[in-house]
Design goal:
alpha/beta; seven-stranded parallel β-sheet; three-stranded mixed β-sheet; globular
């Protein structure tokens, strides 16, 4: 296989690149990434140029996308604007990348008859009540809450329409919250870790009762590869590892793991429209395609993630000051 990974210099995309590079040694990988603030070419160091190429470019560039798609077998589409807080401040980049970018890719794979896997989020489903026994399934109605999640919902619907209307060979996955190495410090877990490393208290939105369904990025990568190779065209698969934890518990576990007082954090005003609970039912993926997660011990995975940030401060420190300025806390 000769594949394109859009957004492959970002957190989840770069982890997928490393996973495929390791697990499929006969594959060649081309990363297309515009290197916004969330993309970092340093995430892709030490990859053999005989098997790997990096191209800086925008997925809304129709001419570039068409040229690349024409000479590859498949596109794994990770590229997205993905941070909720940023979408509340300025929604426009989310429309450009998530809607127009996905449309551009769809037209290219349609023209050249190539395989597409579209990577999405569980946030398209909105949220669940804390006491709701149900989880999101592939049949849950879309009910996005933010400019970010609404543009991802729109991109999912475009993919479905191109499959039905034009016969595009595409699959979709919606995943729960990822954690692991190379995640930008604006995101919840690395932000708390790096606050502690810089001698400040972590900051928790509201009461911290909001629940997220955590999955290690390695498990997400293995699931996407499974869907790419075994998934049925036109189908959607939910990716999750039964990792539900409320934000308060996660912050306290980070502090405890880092040798601090688990209660030593600050509460800050809640985010507008903050979803209450996400929970994924990945039964379809497990039963139909035989996938199962390997990193099911959250405490151990979190410790490994903390260790990575402790050892790689030269990677995250350049991002940190600007991120905290955006939050108005530094």
């Amino acid at each position: 296989m000769n594949i394109i990974v859009t957004g492959g210099a970002g957190f989840i995309g770069s982890n997928f690149v490393h996973y495929v590079y390791r697990e499929r040694p006969d594959w060649k990988i081309t990363v297309l990434d515009s290197l916004t603030y969330a993309g970092n070419e340093a995430n892709l160091t030490e990859l053999d140029p005989s098997r790997f190429a990096f191209i800086k470019g925008d997925i809304t560039d129709a001419e570039l996308v068409d040229k690349l798609v024409s000479v590859h077998d498949a596109v794994i589409h990770y590229a997205a604007e993905s941070h909720n807080d940023n979408s509340l401040k300025n929604p426009r980049p989310f429309l450009d990348t998530n809607i127009i970018g996905t449309y551009t890719i769809l037209e290219a794979v349609r023209k050249h008859g190539k395989r597409l896997h579209h990577v999405s989020t569980d946030e398209v489903y909105g949220d669940l009540e804390l006491d709701d026994p149900n989880k999101f399934t592939e049949n849950t109605p879309y009910n996005p809450s933010s400019p970010y999640s609404s543009t991802k919902a729109g991109s999912d619907l475009l993919v479905r329409a191109w499959v039905r209307s034009f016969g595009v060979e595409a699959t979709i996955s919606n995943c729960s919250n990822n954690y692991g190495p190379y995640q930008h410090v604006e995101k919840f877990i690395p932000r708390q870790i790096t606050e502690v490393l810089e001698g400040r208290k972590p900051k928790l939105y509201g009461s911290g009762e909001n629940v997220r369904d955590w999955i290690h990025t390695e498990d997400h990568s293995s699931a996407v590869l499974t869907i790419l190779e075994k998934g049925k065209v036109g189908e959607t698969y939910l990716i999750g590892a039964n990792g539900e934890k409320d934000n308060k518990t996660v912050v306290e576990l980070i502090l405890k793991t880092m040798g601090k007082n688990p209660k030593d954090y600050d509460h800050v005003a809640d985010r507008p429209g903050h979803d209450m609970r996400y929970a994924i039912d990945s039964t379809k993926l497990r039963k139909e395609l035989g996938w199962k997660p390997q990193f099911t011990d959250f405490d151990s995975g979190l410790k490994d993630t903390i260790d990575w940030y402790e050892k790689n401060d030269t990677w995250w420190k350049p991002q940190k000051a600007k991120t905290e300025e955006n939050y108005g806390t530094k």
